[in-house]
Design a protein that fits this description.
InterPro entries: CAAX_protease (IPR052710), Rce1/LyrA-like_dom (IPR003675). There is one protein chain. The protein is about 70% helix and about 0% strand. It is mainly alpha-helical and about 425 residues long. It has one domain (about 100-140, about 150-195, about 215-434). α5 (about 170-185) runs parallel beside α10 (about 265-290), α8 crosses α14 (about 360-395) and α12 crosses α13. It is globular and about 125 Å long. The termini are far apart.
């Protein structure tokens, strides 16, 4: 008979099942050794097949996993490690620095050379176009029904030469504007910034931050005195050579004197030319050379500015003035170097010179002698009073040894040789025809 009852959770328990379980437990407890022996024997029987099969004979796969892959796997042929590449030779930091500086100088010399080529090309094209127009107008006004006489040709040639002098200012403005547009295209990110024109003002609260000096009227007068002094020294040199029977002729100055009677030439000499030259040589060239060294940037930009004029006499004056302009642009701002350049061209070389010329040869002589005396005296006073400061500035900002070897860059040498040959050629021609 089966007795059943309900557990508290509602499940039915079968007492016959409980009884059978208790009987099995008693048998297991009363015969422990027999049970352990059976388990050990069963374990040996289970392990015997694997003991016979592992490890398998050489050349046979491992059962049972490899039975489904009967093919024999070949060992991957081992090859020696490839030879390690030789390490790069150690880089000399000094050589790397000089190489980078030389590339910088060459790149900037190429930029100035391209600017000069575009400037000259635009001037030639403008002159050719205006010459053709003037020739057509002049020939159209002549009665050429008969064969023109040599006198007619000479008259036409003289008229064309006079017309070209009147249009020199226009051609110069066109060429310099085209050149400026080229520089603006190449350096617009730098030119179209406040720092380019007014300088890096720095942080006034940080004394270590670089700040440009503030221009004062007294300092501007000192720089004007330096320019007049340079011009006075040059005039003294010309007088000395003339006394020896070898007058130094400047083709550029002679052509400017002949063509400066027009408004367009006045605008070119006194306003547009100085602005563009300062932007190119002090704003772009000197500014990008500044990381190499202040002295190097000032001297290199002034030297290239002198060569750019293609005139020996004018180039010497341009180099001296270029040093002053570069110092002002470096320590004050580009605006002040432009103002100084305009003052030199428009006032000293324009208004005062024309006012003296209105009195004839006597006026020119008085003006020249006065300018020479005032300039030399002013130069001596400035050098005596501020010469120690200039020497200290040159000492503090001196360039590293070997910096001027950067002038051996190919493009810099090309610029120097081409412009030097042009200057010597024009000077030789002017001296032989004087």
């Amino acid at each position: 008979m089966i007795i059943c009852w309900y557990t508290p959770v509602g499940k039915v328990i079968d007492h016959s099942v409980i009884a059978v379980s208790l009987e099995r437990m008693s048998n297991t407890t009363s015969q422990p050794e027999s049970h352990d022996g059976d388990a050990q024997q069963q374990s040996q029987q289970n392990q015997q097949p694997y003991a016979q099969q592992y490890p398998p004979p050489q050349g046979q796969p491992y059962p049972p996993y490899m039975q489904q892959y009967p093919q024999q796997y070949q060992q991957y042929p081992q090859s020696p490690y490839p030879a390690q590449p030789q390490p790069y030779p150690p880089i000399n930091p000094e050589q790397a620095r000089r190489r980078a500086q030389r590339k910088t100088v060459g790149r900037l010399a190429g930029l100035i050379l391209a600017y000069q080529a575009i400037f000259t090309g635009a001037s030639l094209v403008a002159g050719l176009i205006m010459g053709v127009i003037a020739t057509i107008q002049r020939v159209a006004g002549e009665n050429l029904s008969q064969t023109p006489s040599p006198e007619t040709f000479r008259r036409i040639e003289q008229d064309l030469a006079q017309t070209s002098l009147q249009w020199v200012g226009v051609m110069s403005i066109i060429s310099v504007v085209v050149g400026f547009l080229f520089i603006l295209l190449m350096r617009h990110r730098s030119i179209l910034t406040r720092a380019f024109w007014l300088g890096d003002a720095g942080n006034p609260s940080n004394s270590a931050a670089p700040q440009h000096a503030r221009m004062r009227p007294a300092w501007f007068a000192v720089f004007v005195a330096l320019i007049i002094g340079i011009q006075g020294v040059l005039q003294l040199i010309q007088i000395a050579f003339a006394a020896l029977g070898v007058p130094l002729v400047s083709p550029t100055s002679d052509s400017i004197d002949e063509a400066a009677i027009t408004v367009s030439m006045w605008l070119y000499i006194g306003l547009i030319g100085p602005i563009v030259e300062e932007v190119v040589f002090r704003g772009v060239l000197m500014r990008e050379l500044k990381p190499i060294g202040k002295n190097f940037a000032i001297i290199t930009s002034s030297f290239m500015f002198a060569l750019f004029h293609d005139d020996v006499v004018q180039g010497v004056f341009a180099f001296g003035c270029g040093l002053v302009f570069a110092f002002v642009a470096m320590e004050y701002s580009l605006i002040w170097s432009i103002a100084l350049h305009i003052f030199n061209n428009a006032i000293l070389g324009g208004v005062l010179s024309e006012f003296a010329a209105s009195f004839g040869d006597a006026g020119n002589l008085v003006y020249g002698v006065t300018l020479m005396i005032v300039g030399i005296v002013g130069l001596i006073v400035v050098l005596v009073k501020y010469g120690w400061g200039l020497r200290e500035y040159a000492r503090v900002n001196r360039s590293a040894p070997g910096t001027y070897w950067n002038w051996t860059s190919g493009l810099f040498l090309t610029f120097a040789i081409l412009n030097g040959m042009a200057a010597l050629g024009s000077f030789t021609i002017a001296m032989t025809t004087a």
